[in-house]
Fold each of these.
Amino acid sequence: MTRVVVIGAGAAGLSCGLSLLDAYRARGGTIQQSGSAAMATDGSAHGVSLCVLEARDQIGGRVFSERHGSFVVETGAATVQETAPGLRELFERLQLQDEQVYSDDRAKRRYVYRAGRLRRLPMKPPEILSSDALSIPARARLLAEPLVPPRAHTLTDESVQSFFERRLGRRVTNEIVEPALAGIYAGDIAELSMPSALPRLWQMEREHGSLLKALRHSQATNKGTPTAPRLCGLRGGLGRLMQAMGRAIDSQGGRVRPLSAVRSIRVADPGSGRYCMELAETSLVADELILAVPPPEAARLLADLDPQLSTVYRSIGMAPIVAISLGWPREQVPHPLDGFGFLVPRIERMRDGLRLLGALFMTSALPDFEQAPKGQVVIRAMYGGAHDPEVERMADGELLEQVQRDLRTTLGIWNEPRFIHIQRWPQAIEQYRLGHAARVAEIEVRLRALGHLHATGAALYGVSVPDVLRNGRELGQRIADALPLS
Ligand SMILES: Cc1cc2nc3c(=O)[nH]c(=O)nc-3n(C[C@H](O)[C@H](O)[C@H](O)COP(=O)(O)OP(=O)(O)OC[C@H]3O[C@@H](n4cnc5c(N)ncnc54)[C@H](O)[C@@H]3O)c2cc1C
């Protein structure tokens, strides 16, 4: 029997474990109950056993939903793109398709804070001219983008800042690109790598020579279909997707074990290709071991096995985020909240003394989510990021004063919130800095040399939940395809 162990029950680890079991079963393989007597023997039983080890008392990692009375809080990820590859199949596999909730047209509308108030971002190129979300010189420069020649194809890496300053100019970069990137990576655009952080836009320049030309081309070829895909979540919270994956693993004979932090990994016996893991009160042996933990933890676990691999993982930094969910009766929020939310550019934060990166209008983004009592709204304010890591260490009281001050300035809310939830993520988002592709390539090479040790997770091929699910799924299927059936 092949004993497979996954370390980390976040989106990546759960997706990898579930796909591995599904793919192995589809090949006609037998799943042995993990943790049973068969698990302890080595080779007497056929098939595969699977155990997913999770350090915390709950599974899901950065996709987790908490109920507080009549409010549901998304502590991490809240929405995914409906059309992301493999997502529909996953919801169907877990029989969650009737529980999906979608954004409506309002969520396409986004705001940016500029010169003292929120302004609507242009949705289509023709709206750029009339939109006051950008200063007049920025609008003019944006429209001139197709005239900027593309950079040589031989260039393999470039910072996000350099790419956009070259294509769109410094003003547009400061007014739109910087806050948008803070919304995804909470990162520093001077450090983020364009081909790794925004591969589609990087490719657009290569294929069409210009971003606006690429946009026009895609609008012409997709005539009649909506350009921006809908966002979706789950009634009761996206965390239910993680719970359902955990249950599906258990019901197939695998085992998901919360409160099972792996302390260390070593080679079980030289030449065997097996790995041994130390947990608090026990140890486990794996014939195939999958690391599905964030980079700092991967670096720690790999320090003795392969110091160089550990160093590469350590060099993938993480930015912190503090997400504060606040609830009010609808009438106490003067803004119409007719959009997905708003962003605050760094230049505006510095000018007006704000610390807020941006805020999501949660109850507008997914109107059928039912995350607040009727007649109340929830806004999720985001703080921290690469430029303001100190926020993570601020006391709750200080944070509340800050968020109330910032929302008074941006949304005109003067009332005390009826509901408050503060979520701190000291290690929130992986930073795909310059050289990221080379780092990932080195990780792949070194893992191959280690044999039956694999890795997945947001450190590698995209930080969005669908990217992480896809990467986990592909790895699980690849391992299952290579496993012996008897
Ligand atoms: C505030 C916030 C908002 C976000 N919003 C969105 C969004 O709206 N849409 C979107 O697509 N993405 C969003 N993301 C990004 C997305 O949530 C993450 O990139 C993704 O969930 C990461 O999944 P993962 O499995 O790689 O890592 P994780 O979710 O971190 O899972 C790793 C797991 O490993 C466990 N672990 C660590 N060490 C050990 C150990 N030694 N032994 C056992 N277990 C261990 C951890 O406890 C954790 O459960 C958001 C992230 C944050 C923080």
Amino acid sequence: MKFVSAAKLEDLKPGTCLSVELDGERGVALFHVNGEILAMDNTCPHAGGPLGEGTLNGDVVTCPWHGWEFNVRTGQCLKNPVPAWAVPCYPTRVEHGVIHVAFPLEPV
Ligand code: FES
């Protein structure tokens, strides 16, 4: 599995999230939860809102457009916890202060 750099760790403060693009291809949302870096698709399955620009509370992100909530560890939608509304999650790792995401993007 290949990993590509996505952001500097210093740009993702604990308890926050961030939208990035990998290789100009797909948008990815990054989350910093209790020292753990998590990644999932940036596109909300409801209407395409940017999840990385939402509000992070613990391990739940609230979409900035209409307020749907997703668990950032599992991608599960709290309102409709069915696979069709889940957001794909991607492996991450941090090396030398840089966040990397597995690429090409394949859900875990
Ligand atoms: S686009 Fe995310 S809740 Fe509607």
Amino acid sequence: MAEPTYRFFDVQVLRTERLSRSLVRVVFGAVAGGAGLGGVGGLGAVVSGGRDQRLKLFLPQAGQDAPVLPDVLDTDWYARWRALDPAVRGIMRTYTVRDVRRDPDELDIDFALHGDLGPASRWASAAAPGDRLALLAPVVTDNGGVDFRPPEGTDWVLLCADETAVPAVAGILEWLPAGTPVKAWISVGDPADRVELPTKCEAEVSWLTRPASLAEAVAAATLPAGRPYAWLAGEASLVREVRRHLVGPRAFPRPAVRFTGYWRAGTTEDALLEEST
Ligand SMILES: Cc1cc2nc3c(=O)[nH]c(=O)nc-3n(C[C@H](O)[C@H](O)[C@H](O)COP(=O)(O)OP(=O)(O)OC[C@H]3O[C@@H](n4cnc5c(N)ncnc54)[C@H](O)[C@@H]3O)c2cc1C
């Protein structure tokens, strides 16, 4: 049987850092005696494929110290997790691996805070050293959780994102080879949501404060010549609108546009999961 590309890790908050008005970095480390980031208990060490590498995190319910997971975490973990009482089992959410470091083993996730509305945002806004989570994180760098894959022969890259996809954009800009032409548009709620995005690319990053429209900004732009590769992520309707413009009036080939709704206004991630299963 093929080796799994993702495994579960028990982690705790080591520290937090405020990156902007809405973005908080949570740095995770292993829990003593748990299945640690460094591979305690026979688990492989957590790694990241970089770019927009995704992972699942499991939050404790109110009143729990640590998330409740199935006793057996094998390839059938998802069915086992679904069989648990939704009011008791760990709350599953999808996030981006912002960074992984060794000696000591640490993993960063940048959370866009959107108030008290969702359990992940609520948890992250109060996160403190010692708080526990579980991660389902990659243990091989070549895994199915990286979407940003510009094909050979790509001449330039277009990125569109909101706050939730800023960590992925940061990872993409770090990963792309020096000199790659990039045009990026990022929609935020407030100018204080902007962060530095270090890169060796020839990147032109435009920050838009809502209600300014991403799709309108892209539509008004002069785009470089050559073969494009577009990557769009953020609120689902925003992403759809930009994609429609790119594959419509701009005539981008459909396979050259990678788009992902990171969340949908008015819908929890649990409800989105129910829809898709
Ligand atoms: C592949 C992938 C990678 C992602 N990476 C990141 C990441 O690195 N950082 C990050 O912050 N998010 C990321 N997200 C988005 C994150 O998973 C969602 O925002 C998620 O819904 C947050 O969970 P919650 O428990 O806070 O809210 P939920 O319980 O899922 O939702 C509660 C309510 O809040 C609304 N809502 C959810 N997110 C937002 C938001 N950002 N602003 C305003 N309202 C919102 C929902 O529409 C719903 O009405 C990623 C999503 C995907 C699919």
